[in-house]
Amino acid sequence: MKSALVIRHTPYEGIAGFRQPVEEAGYVIDRIDVTDPGFAEIDFDAPDLVVMMGGPMGVYETDRHPWISSEITRLARRIMLDRPTLGVCLGSQMIAAAMGARVYPGPVREIGFAPVAVNAAGLGSPLRHIETVPVLHWHGDTFELPEEVELLGSTDIYHHQAFRRGVNILALQCHPEMGEDLRFEAWLEDEPYIEEAGTSVAALRAQHDQLGSAAVAAGRKLIADWLDRIEA
């Protein structure tokens, strides 16, 4: 059996809808939280697949979160080895940082369900499955595009939404895994943050109820397609 390690930066941002395609591709999933005492000793090279999920912290907040530097160092080695790696939201920013790109606060927060404009490169990639499909966005940080990667999609607010390097490294700023996970209610607890983004808890809950299942279905197709293409 193949091994998949899910790295969780906060308890309410897990693999969610991506669990199904990962398991159907033959992976046995293990999970570790960055707050786990054993996280510092985890060998990033060993798993057949590493999935790095989101979180409310910034890649640059190393003083508040000392584990960030160690995570990026180990991730950089895994990327150098071209080991299959998926990053979602904060995970995508971690990949960008590990590849030498700057991660920084953006001008506005992008929160809510909206489609990603998939470019020509994206249409030839697994990202094609979410073309025209509103998926969840929940971030205020962004990143410069690393060298030697392909930009796959954008939104009007943030140009860098998804990129890949070859077939094994995929970074998604959006959250196509979310839409059916009950932990979304924990996301909605930060009402001031949501209101500062120009939306509301009620509006987000309504979007989730209306659009969530279609978003997850498209996200599962995206991940299944990607896993079918990766090279061990």
How would you characterize the overall build of this protein?
This protein has helices at 19-24, 67-80, 90-98, 120-123, 184-187, 191-196, 201-229, and strands at 2-8, 27-33, 49-52, 85-88, 103-114, 117-118, 135-143, 150-154, 162-165, 169-172. It is an alpha/beta fold. The chain has a single domain (2-229), classed as 3-Layer(aba) Sandwich (Rossmann fold), CATH 3.40.50. It has an 8-stranded mixed beta sheet. A two-stranded antiparallel sheet has the order 5-7. The relative contact order is 0.17.
Average pLDDT score: 97
Low-confidence runs of at least 5 consecutive residues: none
The biggest sheet amounts to:
8 strands, mixed
- What amount of the residues lies in strands? 25-35%
Structural class: alpha/beta
**Helical residue percent band:** 25-40%
Give the count of structural domains. Answer: 1
Distance between the termini: 13 Å
The total beta strand count reads 10
Radius of gyration: 16 Å
CATH topology: Rossmann fold
What is the H/E string?
A: EHEEHEHEEHEEEEHHH
Just give the CATH class: Alpha Beta
